[in-house]
């Protein structure tokens, strides 16, 4: 992504002073040189903060105490974007942002109101970077946060080389010392390198969903198949039971075609009787009497339910009547004051409310209030006593309920007498009950039998999902993705080797190409014995910083060759010369920066190689990136190097935060 830093802006807390602007060239090596404690190392945390960091690493005290907002102007193609963020409160980052995008941005002299939040800014930057809008985990489970949607925040690892990283033998990328950032960058690295695209990621996510569905359906299918082995004997047993109940007259055997057995089962369900159809030759007259009693019992049960419902309705009406009367009485009580006002108004010429005598219509208005009161009182009086109609209806229904319950008790006594009298009737009674239980069970089982006989809907679902999975599988060819990722890292390693030719490393590291390990997010080098070793096993900080410089240059060149890379095209190095110029000269008990002009030794030339290497990257055919270097080294080292632009020199009282902001009287 062709995103570079145009300006860094800091708004003072005291609006008397204008904002502090630090301007950068887009296609140059921008250098801010200066003494210690001038604010150079605060630039990376400020830019990171403005780009939506969830934490704030900006140094406390002066750089926070006298500042109201921090801002950055990004150059994105032909557009400029101003992103400003309010100074944090204590240790809590602010969620107040000011966001503006246009062909040209004018810096407001004062910022007061926000127009965006952290999520708004990150969402806008994610869209500009054309990042995937989905995660790699379809369920988006919290424990898989490293598979969450790739954010512009995750790409900051490629653009910031802070003091503790630029010469670090263990960490190559910004913030990857934290497990979450490390795992997420590792997970998304194939996409970042172009080994995967949006089509592949969508296919991979869909395949994960399909795998889970297929596993679940296959487990269900195995259960169904286990059941299907016994389905034929089961349905045959059901039909034989139906014969015993006199429900099926057809002749059949267990060897019959499954379709015929199923057809008999469907026919049985379709013409199953509402009442037992029992012939005179099968049972005695007492059994017919039981059937009549059964029907009568159903009618009584229905009648009981109707009476109970009616009783509930009467009770609800009584409660509603009482509640409404209570509300009406309360309204009348609240307006009781108007009577008193009327009496007072009739006895005096002054207004009883304000005491003035210039209100001739006061009595008329108060009479209107009294009229309203009377309406509420009349309404409330209607509901003071519940009408006797409700009580009469309630008593009648209770009496009806008692009568019906007595009838049902009497019916139950006749049941008991008949069953005791006739053993055959009792047997037939229970047989009828069992028959209906059987029919209910058979009805619920028939649907499963039908699905099993017709081939099973689960098999069809499994086949459809498997077909879709097989169509997606060629897109997510893990071997092909791995080959593309290896090709990308090999290309980056080749570029690194070309940059190492001009940096201060041991000669053997200029002869053998290093390896970029995206699983470990590390650089490996080949030892004398031919084995690969991590950079942590290599001695000398000068080697470490050289590998970091070469890696960042190689990554930027590689990303520039990709169509539509999402990585911003700038890198900020904070004090890469620290391993060469750590010492100072003591003058009269104080500290003074070493005079780089007096250096004509290996360290001087080693630092100069860093600036030359960065400068020479702009001679590449597709060069479209920006470097910013924050360092103690000055023009004595980089002054004669092409493509190096000195942004500012912070010495002799000149700093990131102007002294007048905090020294005013």
Assign the structural class, choosing from mainly alpha, mainly beta, alpha/beta, alpha+beta, or little secondary structure. Answer: alpha/beta
* Uncertain regions spanning at least 5 consecutive residues: 276-284, 584-591
**Amino-to-carboxy terminus distance:** 47 Å
User: What is the CATH domain class of the largest domain?
Assistant: Alpha Beta
Tally of separate domains: 2
Q: In CATH, what is the homologous superfamily of the largest domain?
A: P-loop containing nucleotide triphosphate hydrolases
Shape: flat
Order of adjacent strands in the largest pleated sheet: 2-1-4-5-6
What does it look like?
The chain is built from 20 helices and 15 strands. It has about 675 residues and is α/β, with parallel strands linked by helices. It has two domains: about 5-195 and about 480-660, P-loop containing nucleotide triphosphate hydrolases (Rossmann fold, 3-Layer(aba) Sandwich), CATH 3.40.50; about 285-420. A five-stranded antiparallel beta sheet has the order 2-1-4-5-6. The protein has a five-stranded parallel beta sheet with strand order 7-11-14-3-15. The chain has a three-stranded antiparallel beta sheet with strand order 8-9-10. A hairpin with a 5-residue loop joins strand 9 and strand 10. Mean pLDDT is about 80; it is low at about 275-285 and about 585-590. This is DUF3732 domain-containing protein. Keywords: Coiled coil. It comes from Nitrincola iocasae. Pfam families: DUF3732.
